[in-house]
Each structure stands twice: as C-alpha cells, then as structure tokens.
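Before the break, one more example. Copy the sequence into your notebook; we will annotate it together after we see the structure.
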Amino acid sequence: MERQNGRHTGSSDIPLTANGEKRILATGRALVGKDRLIIPGNLAHIYVSPRKRAQRTLELLGLGCQPGVIPWQAHGELPETNQGGRADGGGGRSDGVEAGHAKGTNALVEVTEAIREWDYGDYEGVTSKDIQTQREKDGLPPWDIWRDGCPGGETPAQITQRLDELIADIRTRFHAHAIGKPKGSVKEPYDVLVVAHGHILRAFAGRWVGKNIADNPSLILDAGGVGTLSYEHHSLKEPAILLGGAFMSDVVENVEDEKEQEKKGS
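Here is what the structure looks like once it is written out:
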C-alpha cells in the first residue's frame, strides 16, 4: 500500500491510487500463477486488512476474485485475468468474520482487524516532515514509530500483541501439521497470503522471526512489493525471512515497461 501525498493513513479508508493499481497489476502478472511465487492452488487461507485499498489489492492480484466470491462488494472493475466462474462452495464465515472463496484456490478470504495498518492516532493524515517539525517545536526528540508508537494511537506493545496472536493463529491452523513433514506427505495446501499495509507488514515480518519491533525491524517493503516468510531447516521453531522471495514492484514495472516498448518497436 502506498501513502497518498506522503501522509500517514492508518484508520483513513482511502482508495488505492491509480499508480498503486498499476503496480499491483504488474505484480500480479509477474508473481501470480502455477509456476510463480504465489501459486493460487497452494493457498490455504488469505488474510486481508479491512481497508478497501488492501481489498482492492487482492482484487487486482489475479487470483480470480470477483463479486459474490470475495466477502465485500468489488471496489472497482476487475482485470480480465480475474474474471471467471464462481468457486465451488460460495461464501462462509471464519470465527465470526465474513469470508469467501477465491476463484482458482480453495483458500478462505478472511477480513481481519489483526492486520489493519498501524493506528497513527494524532499523526493520522500528517506527513513525516510535519510530524518532525511539530515534535521539534514541542521539545521532543525525532519521531521513531518503532520506539515511540503514535500519540493517541497504537504503541509498539499493542502492535506486537495483535500480530503475535495472528502469527500464532497461522502456525496453529495451517503450519503445525505440515512444516517438517516428509515432502509430498501433506496433500492439502498450507501457504498463507497476507494482504495489508507498509508499517504493519514490516512489523509482521519482524515479529515472525521474534524481533522486538521497538528496536526497529530494519525492513523495507515498497508499495506493491511482496515478501516471503518461511522456516529454516523445515522447523516450526525456526521461523525465517526468505530473502530470495522478496520482490519490489518497481522491478516488476520495469520489466513490464520493457515488454511494452518491445511490442511497440516490433
């Protein structure tokens, strides 16, 4: 998710920008498919932020989501790659949360507050530059969200609590029975897709490997980027960040632009 005009938007339910939609479409074309990083058939569950910009991101990724299947009314026209028949089974509920099935996968799509963006409180809608200027006037040190949290919003401890609960849910429901088992012995899908926002996803990755986010996880995730979290030595006790599975949308866009130029030149 990208910020609009550099402003911090956590609770504001703003739409995905036109540039954001372009980035996600490029990401989906490059990284979603049977032989790609995100294999729809391998997904067991999809967690999505309640913010419509995150939901729009899922719509545009190319998993085949459509109105009547995803648990919300579509936020815009669906790309051609996303159109198709309804998935078997229709919609459903997961722990009291609206959910539905995505075309091309039997994964349940769950909208959850657990992965909503950081609540910026008093800093909602404010740029980093303006925040620093105001803090300087107030005699406060430079703002570090990982250390300070947000006045009137969430603290690092509160973020840690809700993310730890989500991570425990993922490991208990989808990974405990599969990670470490002999290759090919687990027949059902157990990959999980999380669609959310910049700060919360960086915090999520930090907590995945047990890092204290108050120390700053020192991770960067570009708008439209995709990261991969896994386990070392196929052990549930050794969560890890898979560096080879991290992709930036700018790289994807450049490839797409080069293809377009080649078409025009031919």
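The first helix runs from residue 18 to 31. Strands lie at 43-48, 91-94, 97-101, 108-111, 191-195, 229-231, 239-241. Try to locate both features in your own notes.
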